Amino acid sequence: MKPTLLVLAAGMGSRYGGLKQADQVGPSGETIIDYSIYDAIQAGFGKIVMVVRQNILVDMKALFDTRWGDKITIEYAIQEVNVPIEGIDNLPERKKPWGTGHAVMVAKHLINEPFAVINADDFYGSDAFKTISAYLQNGISDSENAMVGYILKNTLSDHGFVSRGICETDDNNYLHTITERTNIERINGTVVFKDDEGNQTPLDENSHVSMNFWGFMPNFFDEAETQFREFVQSNFENEKAEFYIPSIVSKMMEQKELKIKVLESTAQWMGVTYKEDKPVVEEKISRLVEAGSYPEKLV
Questions:
Q1: From residue 211, how far is each of 207, 257, 267 by CA, in Å?
Q2: From CA 213, how far away is CA 129, in angstroms rounded?
Q3: Where are the domains of the chain?
Q4: Looking at domain 4-141+210-257+274-290, what is its CATH homologous superfamily?
Q5: Is the pTM of this model over 0.85?
Q6: Tens digits of per-residue pLDDT, 273-283?
Q7: What is the per-residue pLDDT across 8-44, written as a single tens digit (0 to 9) for each?
């Protein structure tokens, strides 16, 4: 069975200053999502599901259905900022979605097969798609899932802090722990993360990190829903609380409900967290096109 690619494209783009999901970075007007779809098709994925907000749905469909609709099935799931949650009343008004874990949940009705999850604004590289597609098609069990792991120093931005899941693995490259750090940057030559009080803690720049490139079986949805209800109840009055995929994974590992195989990638990550990142991404993609890794025009 061909896996599905789930693209998380409902982000608000607050640090970027605009709708970066549709921003052009390729020589013929391609977005980062276009390169992800191209790599997914080449790697054998059978369907694309995009998680978007209702207010950008028309624009996203016009952009991606037109380009790719005759090459692969594309479906859309809606993630809203303020959502009703059964059994929980009087939720505080939120200004941003509940996070990546909730974004995965809203696509449950569209996915019944093994699936990979990516961020819309991250350029992962073709090898990563081929590796995780092969893993998902290899008949793994419900309890054995996967993650593409990148090297921390290859995933930093020169223009501000980033969020990464810092990973520890065992001798067989199975994930042991993952800790979400939301303020990581290089300061005076050292990679550090800052806590809410501004305290800095050094990180090993060669450690594995999650770039939200996961491979899951469909039963992941049910556990995510259970944990989300618990998370909302625990963070009822915290309008900034976010429900992250690594948190779901960590709890499932603690309960011995799943194992995560870390599929290493040494590729240089590219992304547009900040507006200043865009020229860098454009230049790197231009080099990949010149090297023959991608055609000058994807479609």
A1: 13, 22, 12
A2: 9
A3: 4-141+210-257+274-290
A4: Spore Coat Polysaccharide Biosynthesis Protein SpsA; Chain A (3.90.550.10)
A5: yes
A6: 778 888 989 99
A7: 998 755 443 456 677 899 999 999 999 999 999 999 9
